[in-house]
User: Which sequence fits this backbone?
């Protein structure tokens, strides 16, 4: 697509900030240290970064709370802060004075790493607006859901006040504009931290894999049925955990059984990816969700693994952008099995897709590349503040 090609070029090019500027970030994802890498990159580019994070968080697959850990070099940047409803990305509230936090860090510009309809975006956006600090929000949402009227009202106020929206996909950008974004809306992909050293590949039967939550919306029943349509020997490796694990682990497939690999840290994920010949993301669209990005696609491509994805949400856009795989109609087991047979029978095709995908990831999605578009929006927001707050109309 022409638009994707233009977007890719804009991501790859980007100025580095020359003067010291102060950035306030509000981010529940930054509880996990790997999600601080963009902000550490900005600090290396001479930004003075403060990150407000929940002092504890929860995820749906663990009863134990998570506590923020700083990346090396970011220890002084983190501001752990108590929240209510920890673990609820759209509904948690910071139990602090936002004005006091802003007065302490004296930001030139701010970035709320949350959806525009979330309570954190409304809570912090309101204070930042009153204090005259330009701010941006992120947008992954790619379905125009019928939200309750109060939520739509809060979303509209945030988008009217925001200086910019960091859209994580083209669909998200279109929705942000349709919902009334008055500031700049531009593509700013999530950074996918990559690994410098990859474990060697070992000899193994043709292995199909999946990484992520083991839940119904991910289409894992389709994947199991498609693998069962292949000739033996074949392996199916599921990397992750979730409610479907008990029903999937150990299921028979031609010449083997389904394996589940759980508990890998981000640093250990290459151990899983390098066991695969192809990664499949067979997601299903639901009334309230469709695949918003597909981070595992990027991670697999970096590890030299081609991908096959359904046409749910942003999967086909991402596969086309990277050139690293094949797509199939959502829910079509026969077509998925056909893609897997083709990749099994054509190792040269697997290699071509893997090489193209790896090159695209390096160009567009590494921490340095993904920091560029966010930094450009931060710089432009700060420049408009310095000129007196003039805001251009949202670009097409």
Assistant:
């Amino acid at each position: 697509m022409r638009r994707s090609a233009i977007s890719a070029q804009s991501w790859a090019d980007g100025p580095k900030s020359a003067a010291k500027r102060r950035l306030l970030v509000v981010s529940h994802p930054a509880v996990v240290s790997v999600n601080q890498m963009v902000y550490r990159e900005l600090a290396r580019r001479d930004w003075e970064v403060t990150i407000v994070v929940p002092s504890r968080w929860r995820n749906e697959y663990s009863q134990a709370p998570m506590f923020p850990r700083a990346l090396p070099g970011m220890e002084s940047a983190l501001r752990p802060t108590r929240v209510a409803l920890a673990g609820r990305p759209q509904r948690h509230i910071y139990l602090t004075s936002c004005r006091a936090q802003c007065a302490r860090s004296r930001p030139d510009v701010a970035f709320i790493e949350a959806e525009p309809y979330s309570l954190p975006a409304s809570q912090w956006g309101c204070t930042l607006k009153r204090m005259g600090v330009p701010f941006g929000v992120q947008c992954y949402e790619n379905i125009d859901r019928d939200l309750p009227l109060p939520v739509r009202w809060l979303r509209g106020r945030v988008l009217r006040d925001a200086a910019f929206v960091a859209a994580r996909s083209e669909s998200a950008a279109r929705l942000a504009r349709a919902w009334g974004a008055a500031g700049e809306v531009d593509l700013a992909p999530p950074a996918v931290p990559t690994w410098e050293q990859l474990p060697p590949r070992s000899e193994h039967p043709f292995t199909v894999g999946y990484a992520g939550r083991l839940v119904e919306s991910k289409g894992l029943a389709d994947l199991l049925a498609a693998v069962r349509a292949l000739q033996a020997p074949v392996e199916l490796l599921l990397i992750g955990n979730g409610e479907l694990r008990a029903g999937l682990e150990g299921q028979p497939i031609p010449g083997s059984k389904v394996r589940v690999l759980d508990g890998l840290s981000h640093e250990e994920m290459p151990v899983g990816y390098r066991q695969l010949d192809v990664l499949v993301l067979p997601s299903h669209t639901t009334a309230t969700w469709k695949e918003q990005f597909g981070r595992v696609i990027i991670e697999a491509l970096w590890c030299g693994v081609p991908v096959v994805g359904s046409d749910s949400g942003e999967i086909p856009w991402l596969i086309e952008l990277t050139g690293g795989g094949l797509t199939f109609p959502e829910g079509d087991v026969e077509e998925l099995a056909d893609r897997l047979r083709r990749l099994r029978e054509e190792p040269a095709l697997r290699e071509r897709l893997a090489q193209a995908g790896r090159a695209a990831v390096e160009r567009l999605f590494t921490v340095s590349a993904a920091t560029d578009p966010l930094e450009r929006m931060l710089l432009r927001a700060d420049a408009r503040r310095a000129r007196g707050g003039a805001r251009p109309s949202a670009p097409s």
Confidence is low (pLDDT under 50) at residues 1-17, 390-396. The chain has two domains: 2-191+366-386, 206-363. Residues 2-191+366-386 form a domain with the Rossmann fold fold (CATH 3.40.50.2000).
